[in-house]
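input
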Amino acid sequence: MKLKDYLEKGVERKWLIENLIPMGEIVILYAPTNQFKTFLSLKIALEVLTGSQELGHSESGKVWYISPDTTAQDLVLRIKALIKADYEDQESVILENLDIDFDFVPLTANTYDADGMSWEGSGLYDNLKGYKLIIIDTLSQTMGDSSINDDSAVRKVIKNLKSWIRGGKHTFSILVIAHAGKNTGKGIMGSSLQKNDFPTVLNIRKFKKQYQLYREKIKDASEGTGIPFKTRSISVDGYETLYVDIGEELTD
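output
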């Protein structure tokens, strides 16, 4: 399309979750250990699965959650807690459309798998499967023998993620979970390319007794704003766990 056509028609930005996760882009979410990254990323997953609006208007579709960092028992328990707390009437939709995987995804490799499937080929396949969101928890678990401090390895990861999305015709987004040091203000742990080359950067900030999902970097007027949340305790199958509760005014 010629430039004049773009100027005449304009370019409409598409969102997976409005003012939070752009459609067809890679997004990184980081926080220190034990600041509820997985709990919050599961909340994001269920919002997309159900097309809910607690985090903003969401497109609905299938979600693939890749989590070599968490045991199956823990992840399933956390998902069941969220369903019990907020999504019981949509449980069947979630069970049908949420895929979870605990295998290592080699994001520093030249191909998606040992059979030689390209990253773009994987994106095409995932598009056909109907995924709207792929979550990778965490980035460090995809680096193989490379370090997250290695600029060339991180650059390769970002290139492969973009190829993955491009192969899917930008019909899904990829959310990558990453670690920070003890102080979130010092940024993402590892190479600075993570912050510089991801178009959208989110983090979790603690504000008094409440946490915020903070839009650190996003090509939108919402940049620099946060979505408050708290974690609440809930009993599931005889176990105590937590779930993320979104809202502006939450009490104990």
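quick obs: The mean pLDDT is 91.
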